[in-house]
Specification:
- The chain is α+β, with helices and mostly antiparallel strands.
- The protein has one domain: Nucleoside Triphosphate Pyrophosphohydrolase (Alpha-Beta Complex).
- 24% of the residues lie in helices and 34% in strands.
- The protein is built from five helices and eleven strands, in the order H-H-E-E-E-E-H-E-E-E-E-H-E-E-E-H.
- The protein has helices at residues 3-11, 26-33, 85-97, 149-153, 184-196, and strands at 39-48, 54-60, 71-72, 75-77, 104-109, 113-114, 119-128, 141-148, 159-165, 168-177, 180-182.
- Strands 1, 2, 3, 4, 5, 6, 7 and 8 form an eight-stranded mixed beta sheet that branches. The protein has a three-stranded antiparallel beta sheet with strand order 9-10-11.
- Strand 10 and strand 11 form a beta hairpin.
- The protein starts with a helix and ends with a helix.
- Keywords: Hydrolase, Magnesium, Manganese, Metal-binding.
- Its cofactor is Mn(2+); Mg(2+).
């Protein structure tokens, strides 16, 4: 395992203590969408192993109901048959990008995150075997791409801005790499990873 992946594995919430409860941004979301119950979901913050570890990301198709056309981690809502957040993240990744579960090694979790669309996401951080073949499922994913983890760790690549949403001013972060704009919930989860690594 590379030094970068070792640092990452030490920064995440341990597999033995999965996060529970509200997202770390819950108070902000209450102001925007109220305090209605959130639906559980999970995403895979997958890092493909190699000389240069890379985060695996997707571009959602334009016809989806939530977050169409946006960059996202593979993942989705929890199904009744899912044993836990890891099961959700692995199932969704297999469905969305053809990632075989045997090629994924979960490392831990990031802090839970509430979304505008009414979900509480548990981000599952995992290593992905360098030989894994990834391909988009056309019904949900327009593109699969990878970004070196070192790109996110470079402070100059983090962009901060403020946006208006339903009369509220929100402080946001984003990254732009290879023509892809990484913003919203995905950028916030990456930022949480940077915070946990002491690199924000």
């Amino acid at each position: 395992m590379s030094e970068l992946l070792t640092d990452l594995s030490h920064a995440v919430v341990p597999l033995s203590s999965p996060p529970t409860g509200q997202g770390w941004n819950h108070a902000d979301m209450v102001q925007l969408i109220g305090d209605k119950p959130r639906r559980p979901a999970a995403v895979l913050v997958g890092v493909r192993e190699g000389v240069q570890p890379r985060l695996v990301l997707t571009v959602r198709t334009d016809h989806l109901q939530d977050h169409a056309g946006q960059v996202a981690f593979p993942g989705g809502r929890t199904d009744p048959g899912d044993a836990d957040a890891i099961a959700t993240a692995l199932r969704e990744s297999e469905e969305e990008i053809g990632l075989e579960r045997r090629l994924v090694t979960p490392l831990g979790f990031l802090d839970r995150f509430d979304t505008i669309s009414g979900y509480t996401i548990t981000p599952v951080v995992a290593r992905i075997d360098p030989d894994a073949r990834l391909y988009p499922a056309p019904a949900e994913v327009a593109e699969v791409f990878e970004v070196p983890l070192s790109f996110f760790l470079e402070p100059r690549n983090l962009r901060r801005y403020t946006m208006d949403f339903r009369g509220h001013r929100r402080d946001m972060v984003e990254f732009v790499h290879g023509g892809h704009r990484i913003w919203g919930a995905t950028a916030a989860m990456v930022f949480n990873l940077l915070q946990r690594m002491g690199r924000s």
